[in-house]
Amino acid sequence: MISLNIEKTFGFISKASVAAYEAQVKAAQEALENGTGKGNDFLGWLHLPSSISQEHLADLKATAQVMRDNCDVVIVAGIGGSYLGARAVIEALSNSFTWLQEKKNAPVMIYAGHNISEDYLYELTEFLKDKKFGVINISKSGTTTETALAFRLLKKQCENQRGKDMAKKVIVAITDAKKGAARITADKEGYKSFIIPDNVGGRFSVLTPVGLLPIAIAGFDIEKLVAGAADMEKACGVNVPFAENLAAQYAATRNELYKNGKKIEILVNFCPKLHYVSEWWKQLYGESEGKENKGIFPAAVDFSTDLHSMGQWIQEGERTIFETVISVEKVDHKLEVPSDEANLDGLNFLAGKRVDEVNKMAELGTQLAHVDGGVPNMRIIIEKLDEYNIGQLLYFFEIGCGISGYLLGVNPFNQPGVEAYKKNMFALLNKPGYEEESKAIQARL
Ligand code: PA5
């Protein structure tokens, strides 16, 4: 199982102060379990891993196979919780380079609908011109502008390029059971569709078809992913004692650090494949906790890359930060530093060592330096990057977020602040129904 080491926070906060959270954490866990806390209509993720049926997984795998049989490229159209989970898992598990090869055993996964860049969308449509491609249109509300716009372009191109019948086969919708434009389109066009349960919010939806279908199409084992999450669901259950409950410890420690002026949590990895796990985590914690003028700001860095950019700030900047490192114990491959007779680069002191040993020493050296520099440090230790371990990690962060949000006293399951930019954008674009806002905003320009 994944483990958590909080020892290197204790120079900054005391063991006793973390232990003192036991009762509050228990109350938060019970509120989640009994559905008595804020946002309790969005708790469908809580026991999701243990309740996913074999039939559901089989249905997802069968649809994934149709996409795999008929597509060289699959575009995941979605934004926020409707794409980050899939991308996080796929990139954590994928070879860094085989997607560049012509022949591969799974479609190339591409993402769209998460920005409104004309150049991005133009270049995407150009790239797809000679490709056998399919699209997964993912939107819980079914009305998100970024995704709807990209899907409009992709649907047209797919139909023109591949014909209406094939388009029907290779376009899948993942959306609400009844409402929203994505549902209306899917029903009218006869697309295969999956439902995002009402009680699962976007950023907690990675273990619904939102994440599972793209992950299965990319060739990864969704049963193992769900099994990892289900084991973590047990390990972080309401009846697991506080001292043994990773999510409870994580939530308590980060809240105590926050109370002591550490306002920014930096999620750190030493493996570039985890970049999108950090992006997913940033959304999960940022959108869940940043409200009522409070909340830890979730940031992320990829080390050692960012040690040569953000490393300076972390070492010596304002002391309002703490680090949470995702530490991967085992790598997949073996590569030793070769010996070189001339030793012009002076690297013979590393000859015969595994590259991973160098990386591990960078990790340890960085931890000690940052702690010395006044940065509390937690480590989440994960054995290796595979479906089972990533499944554990995802659920650990989800339950940790639910508990932590309740400790902070906010509703971790809504996102009222996200509407502000949309209202202004619609007013500026003269969307029907926004006439009053349009007038008001024009007066401000
Ligand atoms: O967590 C959330 O609820 C959001 O990030 C949504 O996932 C995001 O805004 C996309 O929404 P939708 O799936 O309705 O298009």
Automatic annotation (TrEMBL):
Catalyzes the reversible isomerization of glucose-6-phosphate to fructose-6-phosphate. One of its GO terms (cellular component) is cytosol. NCBIfam families: PRK14097.1. InterPro entries: G6P_Isomerase (IPR001672), Phosphoglucose_isomerase_CS (IPR018189), SIS_dom_sf (IPR046348), SIS_PGI_1 (IPR035476), SIS_PGI_2 (IPR035482). It catalyses: alpha-D-glucose 6-phosphate = beta-D-fructose 6-phosphate. The active site is at residues 287, 422. Pfam families: PGI. The keyword Nuclease does not apply. The keyword Isomerase applies. The lineage of its organism: Bacteria, Pseudomonadati, Bacteroidota, Bacteroidia, Bacteroidales. PANTHER family: GLUCOSE-6-PHOSPHATE ISOMERASE. GO terms for biological process: gluconeogenesis; glucose 6-phosphate metabolic process; glycolytic process. It is found in: Cytoplasm. One of its GO terms (molecular function) is monosaccharide binding. Keywords: Cytoplasm, Gluconeogenesis, Glycolysis, Isomerase. PROSITE patterns: P_GLUCOSE_ISOMERASE_1 (PS00765), P_GLUCOSE_ISOMERASE_2 (PS00174), P_GLUCOSE_ISOMERASE_3 (PS51463). Its main location: cytoplasm. Pathway: Carbohydrate degradation; glycolysis; D-glyceraldehyde 3-phosphate and glycerone phosphate from D-glucose: step 2/4; Carbohydrate biosynthesis; gluconeogenesis. This is Glucose-6-phosphate isomerase.
